[in-house]
Amino acid sequence: MEQAAALEARTDVGEALPQLQPMTGDPRVLELAARVVDITFNLHEAPDRADRDRRGSLARAAHNDFAAAGPLVRA
């Protein structure tokens, strides 16, 4: 069950990036979003708990950076 939820989460994140692109012209926001996608897609490749925890911390930091980037709507 947990693997199915993880796959669904990765799929959702991957599908969100193309939907975001028309909403912002800010290359920094798009770069931060792409980083979230990359890190999220690689979480499941962790060979052990320590690496999974490290990758989880990177994913949280990437998400926080993206969320702090500011408004996404084109002016």
Layout: helices, strands, pairs:
Layout: H1 2-20, H2 27-42, H3 49-67
Describe the protein in words.
This protein is mainly alpha-helical and about 80 residues long. The protein has one domain (about 1-65). Helix content is about 70%, strand content about 0%. The chain is built from three helices and no strands. It has helices at about 1-20, 25-40, 50-65. The longest helix is centred in the N-terminal third of the chain and has 19 residues, at about 1-20. The radius of gyration is 13 Å and the shape is globular. The relative contact order is 0.17. The mean pLDDT is about 80.
Q: What's the short version?
A:
With 75 residues, the protein is mostly helical. Helix content is 72%, strand content 0%.
Q: Tell me the number of strands.
A: 0
Question: How much of the residues is beta strand, in percent?
Answer: under 5%
The run of helices and strands is HHH
Radius of gyration: 13 Å
What number is the mean pLDDT? 82
Helix content: over 70%
* Ends distance: 42 Å
- Number of helix segments? 3
Low-confidence stretches: none
Global outline: globular
Number of domains: 1
> What would you call the structural class?
mainly alpha
The biggest beta sheet reads: none
Features of the shown structure:
3 helices, 75 residues
